[in-house]
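Section 5: illustrative case.
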């Protein structure tokens, strides 16, 4: 491609055509936007959203990069209160309401105090194509990992 004044000469199959520079720039800009959108969509589909949210009982958060809203209903933290049942007997839980548009789902996650509990998945669930994991529960506050 060679630039000359206000025209661009495109060589394609040995044919030379004079096209105004503004038209070429507009077409290139439109094509670049199209390619950019495709790349962004591809990256969004292949890379998970990794988001940690620190929430207290009664708080609500709009999850950035998703269409989810998460509200913390109640947090039961028996371990911090000195539960004598041991790690397995003290079921620390959080109740969440996960909303997407006009749909909502209530879930309960438990703190995984042992490797067996983690393997059982008591601290995670999949809601609206997003996996929500309870990372930490302490003093009526929770840390959630939201993944897609």
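Designed sequence:
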């Amino acid at each position: 491609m060679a630039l000359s004044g206000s025209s661009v000469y495109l060589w394609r199959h040995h044919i030379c055509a004079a096209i105004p520079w503004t038209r070429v720039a507009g077409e290139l800009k439109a094509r670049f936007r199209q390619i950019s959108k495709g790349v962004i969509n591809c990256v969004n589909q292949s890379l998970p959203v990794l988001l940690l949210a620190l929430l207290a009982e009664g708080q609500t958060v709009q999850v950035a990069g998703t269409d989810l809203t998460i509200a913390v209903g109640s947090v039961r933290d028996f371990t911090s209160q000195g539960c004598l049942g041991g790690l397995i007997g003290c079921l620390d839980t959080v109740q969440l309401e996960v909303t997407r548009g006009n749909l909502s789902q209530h879930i309960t996650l438990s703190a995984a105090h042992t490797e067996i509990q983690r393997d059982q998945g008591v601290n995670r669930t999949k809601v609206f194509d997003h996996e929500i994991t309870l990372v930490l529960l302490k003093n009526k506050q929770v840390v959630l990992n939201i993944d897609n």
